[in-house]
Amino acid sequence: MQSDPLCSDAVLQTLHHLRTTSPLVHCMTNDVVQTFTANVLLALGASPAMVVDEQEAAQFSAIASALLVNVGTLTRERARAMRAAIDSAREAQRPWVLDPVAVGGLTLRSDFAREVLALQPAAIRGNGSEILALAGGQGGGRGVDSTDSARVALPAARHLARERGAVVAVTGEIDYITDGERTLEVPGGDIMLTRVVGTGCALSAVVAACCALPGERLENVAAGCRIMARAGEMAVTRSQGPGSFVPQFLDALWQLDAEALV
Ligand SMILES: Nc1ncnc2c1ncn2[C@@H]1O[C@H](COP(=O)(O)OP(=O)(O)O)[C@@H](O)[C@H]1O
Ligand SMILES: Cc1ncsc1CCOP(=O)(O)O
Ligand SMILES: [Mg+2]
């Protein structure tokens, strides 16, 4: 299956747009990754806001630049608030992004994620097992972690993208970003990105920010993936393990420039 490399000019342009337009990202995300997600967005120049009450979420998603819906610690009450936020974002023509954390075996989140798929997400970002399961296939997964490579899940990602009119980013050792017709390939990153919690969730928030930027959505989302991967590569050379990786990762996002990205 044909996939193309992403050009570094596109990455630099996306980074520039993140820093200059500072998209306001309404994050409805899980309990584990709230602060890390906010800090990743801030380090890239975007503005996070976590608004969770049903009524407030509907108000806020209409004025935010983009909405993130992450089902990592879904409850019935949160599902109601997320539905209200999605409806309101769509009415206001704001893009929204789905992160189907651990979709597959667990009923509430799997049913919810499949239900909201009908509500035209601008993008979906998940690991291989999550994308396979969301597309109706045999995504095993081990809790929030993938047991399937992104490459194996690429046909499912392309199917999902075509069926839903969304950009789908399936991540892993190599990230693949597809609109169902074209697929961009983002190699790099580091295994350490999987040894601290929340890098996938934070990437989904970055994808939401990228969906609010001018330019092509496919390139913008792929650039968001490359930005995270490159920061991971930089951070691992400056750290001794997971504990020191996290602050180095945030610093690397902040410091990314043309020299680091070309
Ligand atoms: N084996 C790997 N080597 C390098 N980077 C990886 C690897 N696995 C995941 N990543 C990176 O880690 C980040 C989180 O992706 P992933 O682990 O797929 O999501 P999740 O945390 O939702 O399971 C992405 O930037 C991805 O490119
Ligand atoms: C550990 C955990 N449990 C529920 S959500 C969550 C965070 C998952 O983060 P990520 O998908 O970025 O690895
Ligand atoms: Mg995840």
Walkthrough of the structure:
There is one protein chain. With 262 residues, this protein is α/β, with parallel strands linked by helices. The protein has a nine-stranded mixed beta sheet with strand order 1-9-8-7-6-5-4-2-3, sandwiched between helices. It has a single domain, classed as 3-Layer(aba) Sandwich (UDP-N-acetylmuramoyl-L-alanine:D-glutamate ligase). The model has no long low-confidence stretch (mean pLDDT 97). The chain contains eleven helices and nine strands. The site of 4-methyl-5-hydroxyethylthiazole phosphate has 12 residues, from helix 8. The site of magnesium ion has 5 residues, from helix 8.
Mean pLDDT across residues: 97
The biggest sheet, with number of strands, parallel, antiparallel or mixed sense and barrel status, is:
9 strands, mixed
Number of DSSP strands? 9
The 3D shape can be described as globular
How many structural domains does the protein architecture include?
Answer: 1
Please report the first level of CATH classification, the CATH class.
Alpha Beta
Present as ligands are: adenosine-5'-diphosphate, 4-methyl-5-hydroxyethylthiazole phosphate, magnesium ion
- Summed up, the helix count is 11
CATH architecture: 3-Layer(aba) Sandwich
Distance between the termini: 26 Å
